Every structure is written in C-alpha cells, then in structure tokens.
Amino acid sequence: MAKTVVVTGGAGFIGSHVADRFLAEGWEVTILDDLSSGREENIPSAARFVRGDITTPEAAALIRDGKFDVMCHLAAQIDVRRSVLDPVYDATRNILGTLNLMEAVRAGGHPTRTILSSTGGALYGDFDPPPSAESNSKDPEAPYGIAKLSIEYYLAYYGRVHGLDNVALRYGNVYGPRQDPHGEAGVVAIFCNRLLDGRALTVFGDGEQTRDYVYAGDVAGANFAAATVDLPPRGRLDARAFNIGTSIETSVNTLAETLRAVSSAHSPIDYAPARAGELARSALNTTKAQAVLGWTPKVTLREGLENTYRFFADRRARLETQA
C-alpha cells in the first residue's frame, strides 16, 4: 500500500513542488489549501485536492481522520511586510492555524510525522555572522519570524509531552518556477517579470546585502528526506530542526547581474533608499541536514535562475498567445 502525505498549502509555490516530489516517489498526495495565495494551476492532477482553511474545524477533521503518514505543513501567511502591518492576523494564521492541525494529529492517534516549513533567513537575525547554524541565537526582526519560532517551540512541546513525530525545516530564500513576488525571496520573481517587461531592476540600498538562495526543487527534496529518514531523539528546540539552504551568501547586485546575463536583457539597475529593518547578511550552515537527512542542494544558482526565468518567459508567451 502506498504511503500517504497531506501537503497543507500545496497549491502554493513551494507546496506544489513538495507535492510533485512525493507523487514522483509513488506516494498518495492530498493537498489542503484555501487558495488565498495558492493557484489551482499549481495543483498536480494526480493529487487529491481539498479546499479548506487550516484554522477551521473542517481542516482539523481532515487531519484527524485522514491518518496520514506525513503532513508537510506549508500553509501560512508568508508576507513579512503584512506581518509587520497586522501581527494579529499573522499570528492567527500561522500560530493558531498550526495549533489547530497539531491538536488534530494528537486527537487522531496516528503516528503522523509533521514537517514544518519554517524560516532560516528570518529566524536568526543579524547578531551572528553567517552562515548561521541551528544552535545560533534566535532574534527574529518581524512578527513573521516570531510566529515561526513560536510554532517551533510548540512542535518541540508536542514531541516531548505528547510523543508526536515532528521536524522543522528552516529555509533560506526559496526561489524557482511558480514563485509569486511575496516577501524578500520574491525578488527573483520580481526581477524576472521586470526583465521581461524591459523595465529597470530596483535594488534597495547599496545592493550588497546578502541572502542564501535555495532552489524550490531542492527544498522539495529536503521535505522528502525529512519524511523518510530516521530522526534524532525528541528533545530541545533545535534537536529536530534543520537548515535548508546552500551556505552561500549572494548579494542582490550579484543576483541582478546573473539574471540579466541569463535573460540576455539590458534592463538598467536603479538604486533606491535602503529599507528599514532589512537584514544585512544571511546564509545557513547546512552541515546538520547533510549529516542527518542525507540532503545537499543540487541546483546551482545559475542553473536555478535559468530554469526560473524560462518558466516566466514561457508563461508570458502562453498568455500572449491566448490573448
């Protein structure tokens, strides 16, 4: 009998890649998504789709009664800027929504492994030089990161007190096909669309701020690895947390220049005032993921940007043909 996985947020950018990976491995995939930010076109045809909000009793019933082997939890409020403007909304979606699902797992009594999509870039802050290890101090600058850290504490609690099988994956800045221009990582999608429009690329500050850009297909591979390997014993917060990135700092200037080269476009780069509160540097130490999950990123930044730009160019061409 095939193993089963439910992917919350599976119609979204990262979630749809995760669903694709599990389907490719022969798993039965259920997608739970309210389509508030996800797209129906992202849902794989071989997956079962349930439209629903993770904060509702109906979503809890699906998880409780589904007896899934794995839950990849990606449904979330993902916009850092919105979390700053409306931290109550952010906490309601991200913290209370997750608790609704975790209580459902506990009530169901099935040994479901929950894999939380957490954040590395927004978790560690600017106080320790990168690359950040899982044991580094956590000093999130925005409610989004605070909520993700809170959820990780809850997962550690559910593991220690209730024996639930939980793991947290702390992502760098994920990019790739199907990406929407939300949050900091959305800069790749924004730049691709601007290049296709022949418009200037806007860089805030001097462009030397760095991020750890990790390809969506590699993130999907990390989710599958976390679903199928033996994990360390349950314990403190970082016991079952893993950074998922490349350990490479890439500046916004380098990102812009690489995309211009990939696209063969000549869009100028415009510099705008720096944004308050923006991290100066970010990269993740992935030694633990390599050792425990057997996971390493396989797609180089150049290759990933080529794939991503091609996706946006092809989609633009299809839309123009249909117009």
TrEMBL record:
Pfam families: Epimerase. InterPro entries: Epimerase_deHydtase, NAD(P)-bd_dom_sf. Residues 5-245 form the NAD-dependent epimerase/dehydratase domain. SUPFAM superfamilies: NAD(P)-binding Rossmann-fold domains (SSF51735). It comes from the Bacteria. Belongs to the NAD(P)-dependent epimerase/dehydratase family. This is NAD-dependent epimerase/dehydratase family protein. The lineage of its organism: Bacteria, Pseudomonadati, Gemmatimonadota, Gemmatimonadia, Gemmatimonadales.
